Amino acid sequence: FDTAFHQTMDEEAYLYAIPYRYYKQFGIRRYGFHGTSHQYVSRRAADILGKPYESLKLIICHLGNGASVSAIKDGRCIDTSMGLTPLEGLIMGTRSGDVDPGVLEMMAGKDGKNIHEVVRILNKESGVLGLSDGFSSDFRDLEDAYLEGNNPAATRAIKAFVLRVAKYIGAYAAELNGADAICFTAGIGENSPVIRELICSPYLEYLGVELDKEANNIRGKERIVSTPSAKTKVLVIPTNEELEIARHTLAIVKGK
């Protein structure tokens, strides 16, 4: 399952601060998603860096229309941004990501909607689509408009998305007590030099991130895009979820 890689999280990471009986009775907890992608990319990062997988502290940024960040320590996932559903965490194409639960009550009251309608809005009409006032949920459109500099709504959406990613990286750097590498993958992570640069500079310079702008000018290619002297490496790694699933299937067939 797409949640399997995240099952190594400790309870302090996966439990919600709601009455514990909801977890005991109904299994309400954080599960995380994009697990096959996070596992493939983290393992591939170890290969590229030439270091044992079990010795690394990695932050994986799976950035696409759906987006999530995970923290990998010594070969196991210790935290991830998505929760019980894929709605939690980062701002996404049409998903809100983290939001004050009180907002749901206010939206329902002001608009005369029930909880199901409000959750639908958070899933289908929010994220960068909502922030850009309906301009687009496609990051390619938003990036083009951002670079042209004449669309404040698109700029607002891009800046909010970048900030949220940087905040999660910062949180996971604290949880890991530093990071050996930050890896970008998925549609945006692999193909947007602009978004990668906006996240890394100036937000991550305190981690020793130094982006090589020439190396970063790639789309869909595997490469280290930080400078040789950077304390924390930055990698672009195209994900391969199909290969990761095949590896797991082979292991099951062989009884491992």
CATH fold descriptor: Nucleotidyltransferase, domain 5
What is the average of the pLDDT values? 96
CATH superfamily: ATPase, nucleotide binding domain
Which percent bin holds the helix content?
Answer: 40-55%
Pattern of helices and strands: HHHEEEHHHHHEHHHEEH
Portion of residues in beta strands equals 5-15%
DSSP helix count?
12
Question: Which structural category fits the helices and strands?
Answer: alpha/beta
Q: Briefly, what CATH class?
A: Alpha Beta
What order do the strands of the largest sheet run in, or round the barrel if closed?
A: 3-2-1-4-6-5
What is the CA-CA span between the terminal residues? 17 Å
Instruction: Provide the low-confidence segments as ranges.
Output: none
Number of domains: 1
In angstroms, what is the radius of gyration? 19 Å
Global geometry: globular
